[in-house]
Amino acid sequence: MRLRAIDWRGAVLPVGVLATAEIAARLTDYQSSSLPRPSEIVAAAATALLDGSMLHATAQTLLSALGGLAIGASLGLIFGTLMGLFVIFNRLMEVTVESLRPIPSVALIPIALLIFGLGYAMEITLIAKTSFWPVLLLTIAAVRGVKPRLLEVARLLRMGLIARVFKIVIPAALPGIFVGFRIAVGAALVVAVTVEIAANPLGLGYAMMRAQESLRPDLVFAYLFWVGLVGWLINAALLWFQRRIFGTVAFRARP
Amino acid sequence: MTPKRLLLLLLSVGVAAFIVGIWQLASNLHWVSPIFLPPPDRAWAALLFDIERGDLASRVLLTLEHMFYGWLLASLGGILIGSAVGISSTARAYLAPTLEFFRPLPASALFPVLIAFFGLTENMVLVVIGFGALWPTLLATINGFATVKPRLHEVARLMRLSRRQFILSIALPNAMPEILAGMRLSLTIALILSVTGEILSGSPGLGYWIMLQARAFRAPDLFAGVLLFGLIGYASVQIVSLLESWLLRWRA
Fold first, then answer.
1. Which domain holds residue A175?
2. B196 and A198: CB-CB below 8 Å?
3. Mean pLDDT, chain A, whole residue set
4. Nearest CB to B219: which of A104, A114, A199?
5. How far apart are CA B214 and CA B62, in angstroms?
6. Residue B4 falls inside a structural domain
7. Which residues of chain A, if any, have pLDDT below 50?
């Protein structure tokens, strides 16, 4: 990707909308329970950041996301490696996988609620379920894409299954697996916020709902931008990491 | 299909049946409480009973309606904005940074914002679906426009095609495979957001219904509803895939 000079035209729309909203609200002395002034959003964001409530909510959301990811991605990695290595296992699981995959995670909220009640456990379970699939599918693809020559080397060296997996297959498939992991991270954040908005009294999603219910549109917007920023930062960090560790390989490994 | 492939497929059905069997056994022997994990036969009976009683079908239809209209909105929006950004570098310069900013936002985070504007209404849910399901189609359209071969650009210039003619007769057909693939992804997002929207807004769709079952500890009905969601997700993607291969039959 080539570097571009910053184009001022990109700023016209957001700056224009914000300025118009601010000026119009000030001129007409308009007070609304749905559309706050941009300056109020900034003030609300600053207050929430300084009193720690925003960071506290962020920590709760990220903790759930991390917990779910750890479980979901590990299971995805284990099953993906097995299903990629042993085509027969992949085929045997086909119907099970294809019938479970289309169930949307949010439709499982009531079941998780019934089993775990409100709290971290149900959120982490749902996030694990969501982040399992991309890691599983991309691991299968990446493991199957490992060059046969490498596997021949493993056979020549008389490596056992464990050594073969850890010394040859996973390192060779890692760029592809990481792409799956990156997708899983994005999905984990989305599901975390969604579960919090729909049911769970934790984290950023719940903070948004509470701000909405207490008629604080400025705070709702502040959280909205914050959620966007957090997601963007995490994705940017992972992309940077991916480029740095795997170079361009990872981008070619995309299925 | 080779006999070996068929055998493996049958075996894989067997594996799925085996898992369901274990689940049935686990519930029957009370390894897990049937309050949380009802045996599959009771979930199945609940499904049949609820369908027979008649209110389930209308709820499914309502959910399908939310999903479909939201998806339509997202697809139209994605193709329109994508065409604008794809054809004109001016539009790209003005719009692209704003779009880049909104793209990573979790769509569900818009619910609290839009509830303030629209209240807990169907329109609110539709707007969120339209926004959340927009991106795959939008990106596919932009990408499809960007991959028009230089030769086709030359052809368009030679034939003195107007911009509109270029879009309709060259760029959009070129982008078609990608747009359709994007719309298929959008559909899944639309289903997810319909469920979330229904849970939040208390709309009488299937999403709110399963939430009610959970609150009433009617696990068999709840699992029946989730099963229906799996079916909806599976069937809708299959239908769009079929449509896709039919629309793209000229490529083969």
1. 39-252
2. yes
3. 87
4. A114
5. 20
6. no
7. 1-3, 250, 253-255
Residue numbers in chain B where pLDDT is lower than 70? 1, 252
A214 touching B, CB under 8 A?
A: no
The rounded radius of gyration (Å) of the Cα atoms in chain B is: 23
Q: Using an 8 Å CB-CB cutoff, list chain B residues near A33.
A: 116
Number of folded domains in chain B? 1
Give the tens place of pLDDT for each residue, B102-143.
Answer: 888 888 899 988 888 888 888 899 999 999 999 999 999 998
A232 interface with B at CB cutoff 8 Å:
yes
CATH number, domain of A55, equals: 1.10.3720.10
**Quick one: which H or E segment has residue B249?**
none
Report the domain count for chain A: 1
CATH number at residue B113: 1.10.3720.10
Note which residues in 116-145 of chain A have CB less than 8 A from chain B: none
Residue A108 included in any domain: yes
Q: Does A209 touch chain B (CB under 8 A)?
A: yes
Contact B107/A93, CB-based, under 8 Å? Answer: no
Judge: B109–A228 Cβ closer than 8 Å, yes or no: yes
Do B19 and A194 make contact, defined as CB atoms within 8 angstroms? Answer: no
**Assigned domain for B25 exists:** no
Going from the C-alpha of A131 to that of each of A66, A71, A136, A236, B19, the distances in angstroms are 10, 9, 9, 18, 22
Domain that holds residue B157: 40-251
Question: What are A182's two structure tokens?
Answer: 């990156």
How many residues can be counted in chain B?
A: 252
In-domain check, residue A201: yes
Sign of CA dihedral B186, B188, B192, B198: positive
